[in-house]
């Protein structure tokens, strides 16, 4: 196990629990989050639609006042679009509703008495009719009306399809769960080769999906990076988070991927399977050696010096067999 953990560490994958390697070896299903996992964690603000009488730049400034309090990629895109000045809008009493959005009192800088109760997030959270847009949308509303819709453009990671293909080649089922609308989830799923997907998932929906899979006897690994992925990561048999994930998500993950290579997920799985095979080989060797040599030593048919050499050689063989895990690149298959 230590040899495998060392090999993964050199590849930039930190193993937080050694027993997670054994769990990973038995996985038959992998569940991916969409935003920031299969897609790039950097989004760009695209089209903006606002209510009559509201300026688009002002809407972005108001939205970014809330977004500054979140680490979600969509929030970072709004903050980047508003710029460092933020046009003088501030927020107080900010509450982040996991998987839904943000709510707060927003007011112009220096005019704290004129506050607006705003919500930023999903259509359901903002009380806006859901749409079938194939792009990610974030909505802004006050306590009575819709104010603005922000369309965010996201790129699929270059190695996403390669990773999904590699996991399927290992005999795994691959699923996609997303909090975005179904059309956006379907667009990403079709481009990376995932047939099973669900959109508009709350953190509880994701957790229910995982538990249903587990009740059916599946061993599930989860890959995520958002705050709303924390519960499902904690409940999975094995879980991955990337280095740019929020701290709470990293704390729940069994494996932390320092880089942004999705292919490392497939590599870790292959190495976990090889590790378990080596452990079984070593256990069988130890059992056979003890079954043969211990009775001979008890009967006096095996000299003490020869028994000592045999024990040392057996231990050396076990260590050398384990060290094979450090020689083969874990993201490559053994022939």
UniProtKB/TrEMBL annotation:
Cell membrane keyword on record: yes
Pfam family, one: Hydrolase
GO molecular function: ATP binding; ATP hydrolysis activity; copper ion binding; P-type divalent copper transporter activity
Keyword Transport: yes
Location in or out of the cell: Cell membrane
GO biological process, alphabetically ordered: copper ion homeostasis
Predominant location: membrane
Transmembrane segments: 305-323
EC number: 3.6.3.54
InterPro entries for this protein: ATPase_P-typ_cyto_dom_N (IPR023299), ATPase_P-typ_P_site (IPR018303), HAD-like_sf (IPR036412), HAD_sf (IPR023214), P_typ_ATPase (IPR001757)
Membrane-related topology note: Multi-pass membrane protein
Annotated Gene Ontology cellular component terms: plasma membrane
Enzyme class (EC, first level): hydrolase
Keywords: Cell membrane, Hydrolase, Ion transport, Magnesium, Membrane, Phosphoprotein, Translocase, Transmembrane, Transmembrane helix, Transport
Protein name as annotated: Putative copper-importing P-type ATPase A
Organism of provenance: mine drainage metagenome
């Amino acid at each position: 196990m230590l040899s495998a953990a060392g090999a993964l560490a050199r590849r930039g994958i930190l193993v937080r629990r050694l027993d997670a390697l054994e769990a990973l070896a038995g996985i038959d299903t992998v569940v991916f989050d969409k935003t920031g996992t299969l897609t790039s964690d950097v989004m760009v603000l695209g089209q903006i639609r606002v209510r009559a009488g509201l300026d688009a730049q002002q809407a972005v400034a108001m939205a970014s006042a809330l977004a500054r309090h979140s680490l979600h990629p969509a929030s970072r895109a709004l903050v980047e679009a508003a710029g460092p000045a933020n046009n003088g809008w501030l927020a107080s009493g900010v509450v982040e509703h996991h998987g839904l959005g943000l709510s707060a009192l927003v007011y112009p800088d220096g005019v704290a008495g004129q506050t607006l109760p705003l919500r930023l997030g999903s259509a359901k959270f903002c009380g806006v009719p859901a749409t079938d847009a194939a792009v990610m949308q974030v909505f802004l509303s006050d306590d009575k009306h819709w104010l603005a819709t922000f369309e965010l453009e996201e790129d699929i990671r270059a190695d996403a399809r390669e990773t999904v293909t590699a996991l399927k080649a290992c005999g795994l089922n691959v699923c996609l769960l997303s909090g975005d609308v179904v059309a956006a989830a379907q667009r990403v799923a079709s481009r990376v080769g995932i047939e099973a997907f669900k959109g508009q998932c709350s953190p509880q929906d994701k957790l229910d999906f995982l538990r249903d899979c587990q009740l059916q006897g599946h061993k599930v690994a989860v890959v995520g990076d958002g705050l709303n992925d924390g519960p499902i990561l904690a409940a999975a048999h094995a879980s991955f988070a990337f280095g740019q994930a929020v701290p709470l998500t990293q704390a729940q993950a069994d494996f932390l991927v320092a880089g942004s290579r999705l292919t490392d997920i497939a590599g870790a799985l292959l190495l976990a399977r090889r590790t378990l095979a080596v452990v079984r080989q070593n256990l069988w060797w130890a059992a056979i050696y003890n079954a043969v040599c211990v009775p001979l030593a008890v009967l006096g048919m095996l000299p003490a010096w020869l028994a000592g050499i045999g024990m040392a050689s057996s231990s050396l063989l076990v260590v050398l067999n384990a060290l094979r895990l450090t020689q083969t690149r874990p993201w490559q298959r053994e022939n």
